[in-house]
Structure formats: C-alpha cells, structure tokens
Design brief:
Layout (H helix, E strand, L loop, with lengths): L18 E2 L11 E7 L11 E6 L5 E3 L2 E2 L19 H7 L1 H11 L6 E5 L5 H8 L3 E6 L12 E3 L12 E7 L8 H11 E12 L4 H5 L10 E2 L2 H10 L2 E8 L11 H9 L4 H9 L4 H6 E2 L2 E2 L1 H24 L4 E8 L1
Parallel strand pairs: 6-7, 6-9, 7-8, 9-10
Antiparallel strand pairs: 1-5, 2-3, 3-4, 4-11, 10-15, 12-15, 13-14
Helix pairs in contact: 7-10
This protein binds zinc ion (ZN).
The site of zinc ion has 8 residues, from loops.
C-alpha cells in the first residue's frame, strides 16, 4: 500500500515507520520542493513512492522522507553484493572499470591510498600492483575481502587511520548512498595529507539520464549531486573541486533508451510508467518493443535507431557536462 502524501511530499501524519524526514544534508535548510516521486523500480522491495526534493536554499537534491539508517539495509538485497565469484572472475568482470580508474590516476605519484566503500577490494589490489600502499573501509562485512588487502569493517569515524596520513582517498559510487555526506567529506579531508587528492565518483542529477530518465537508484541513492552542489558541499568540508570529468567507462550511465522515452511520451505514456519499464530488468521488452503495453513494429525501429545513436549521444553529453557519471578530483583548501 502506498502511504498518502501531502503537497510538500511529506507523509501525512508524520514519517511512516522506518522513515525519517530530514533537513537539507548540505546546508541544513528546512524548506524544499518536490521534483518528482519514485518507487524502488530496480528491486521492487516496496511500493512506497519516495519524494525526490530540492532544497529551496542551496538547491541540493535528496530523498525526503527516506528510510532511516536502521532501515536502509532492507533495501539492499543479497544480489546487490555478488559474492560467489572467484578473485579472477571479479578482476575479469571489472577489468574495463579498473583500467579506466588506473588511467585517471596514473599522473599521481604512488603513496598511501584509502578506498572508502572498497567492497571486495579489487581496486585496492590493482593499485597495489602499480606501487600504492592500499587501505580500505567498508561498512558491511558481507562483501568478502578477496585480495587480502587491509580493510576496516565499520564506519569512517571508527576507522583506526591517523589524520593527514593518506596521499589519495577514493569513493567510487559511494557518496550517493550516504545519509550524512557532509560529515563523510569532512572525514575524507581529515584523512588527506595537505597535498593529497580525493577522487569521488557520483551520478550527475543534472544530466539527461538523471533528470529526464530518472536513473537514480531510489531509495538506495539518498542524496543526488550536480556539479554545483558537489562543489558547494566539498567547500563546506574544506575541499576544493579541481576538475570534474564525465564518462561511463568506470561506472555505467548511458543515454540508452532516450528515443524510446521520447516516443512513449509522445504516445501519451506517463513518465513514471516509462521509468518503471526501463529500470526493472524484467520489463525491458515492454520498454523497448511496446507502446501502451502492445507490441509495436514502429517502436522496434525507434529502439534500433536508439542503439545506433547512443554511442554518439553519450560522447556528446559527456563532453558537454550532462553525462550521468561524474568524477571529481578534490584537493585540501
Ligand atoms: Zn540546502
């Protein structure tokens, strides 16, 4: 059953059990505007509609209300951690992403590296191979430490690593899952040496896939960044964004399906229905081959054209700064 919401997107009668209403995670502002609501399209764990809101003070985008810190684990099914693989299979599966990360970091002189949200440790393993001294933190003990790198299981503020002791701190597709991203960025800053660097990959809400196609993985993504809001929050944490690069080599984030979206909208389908078809793996046929639930020969042609167009369009949107996946390089202020 879907709880009723008032106009501000708040659940009537207060937040439902396991849900919390929060001030803006970036500036602390209490006033926000609902942009749209979205259920758990990916895993369908609940049919609750989660409001995606934008702070009226600083324009930061976040989920509100959202599952609280004691409840969010319910939305991470075991399939989220693909644990039953050999180390070789993990490295083979992640090769493209790992190579892209190493290429992005190759101009840095090897030193001490901390990867926050390191999961099975394949990135730390590859960085060790090219001369880095790797350390990891993961909040969960579920992903096995496959490569025998030093990993602390727990939160960043519990981690036993000294202040100003790392040359490089990385967060790959982690920050958007964090309830309190500002304290996390302050921790990142405290771990960094004065001339250290942080690399943070997050989805770009201000992108065609993020804004129009609603690709954010709600409710697991509890905060959504734009280049500007990432810069603002970093500054609040004592960090400066040096560069932001857009690309889907490290983590997927494509415009694939954009023509399907447009054609379905023109045919009167609601965007929430189109998003649901696109984000649920068992509804892909409906998304790519049907109009209003019925098979359509013309829709098939649209889909084929979309496949051909995607690779060029992805290059263009990434070049223009509207790609879904962005990586910021940060330095200590
Ligand atoms: Zn704000």
């Amino acid at each position: 059953m879907t709880p009723a919401m008032d106009e501000s997107g708040a659940f009537c009668g207060g937040a439902a059990e396991g849900m919390e209403k929060v001030p803006c995670p970036s500036c602390g502002g209490a006033s926000h505007k609902v942009l749209f609501t979205k259920p758990d399209n990916t895993y369908g764990i609940t049919d609750v509609q989660f409001p995606v809101v934008r702070c009226r003070t600083c324009r930061f985008v976040f989920l509100n209300p959202r599952p609280d810190i004691d409840t969010i684990h319910r939305y991470y099914p075991p399939i989220f951690y693909t644990a039953d693989m050999t180390p070789e299979a993990v490295l083979a599966e992640r090769r493209g992403s790992l190579d892209a990360r190493l290429k992005m970091l190759r101009h840095l002189r090897p030193g001490r590296l901390l990867d926050i949200g390191c999961s099975r440790g394949e990135f730390l393993h590859r960085m060790r191979e090219v001369g880095w001294e790797p350390f990891g933190i993961d909040f969960s003990a579920t992903p096995p430490n496959m490569f025998n790198v030093p990993v602390f299981t727990g939160t960043v503020d519990q981690a036993p690593y000294p202040r100003e002791s790392f040359d490089l701190v990385t967060l790959w597709a982690v920050l958007e899952h964090i309830h309190d991203p500002l304290p996390m960025l302050k921790q990142v800053r405290s771990f960094l040496k004065k001339d250290g660097r942080a690399y943070i990959l997050v989805p770009n809400f201000n992108s065609i896939p993020g804004r129009f196609m609603r690709h954010d993985d709600v409710p697991r993504h509890v905060v959504m960044f734009t280049p500007r809001s990432l810069r603002d929050m970093a500054a609040r944490a004592g960090l400066r964004v040096k560069t932001i690069t857009f690309g889907d080599e490290i983590f997927s984030g494509s415009t694939r399906g954009i023509l399907n979206y447009a054609w379905k909208l023109l045919n009167g389908e609601k965007i929430a229905d189109i998003v649901a078809q696109n984000r649920a793996s068992d509804r892909w046929f409906e998304f790519s081959c049907c109009i209003r639930g019925k098979e359509s020969a013309f829709m098939l042609k649209v889909d084929r054209l979309d496949i051909r167009l995607t690779r060029y369009l992805d290059k263009i949107v990434n070049r223009l700064g509207y790609g879904f996946t962005m990586t910021a390089e940060l330095e200590v202020i």
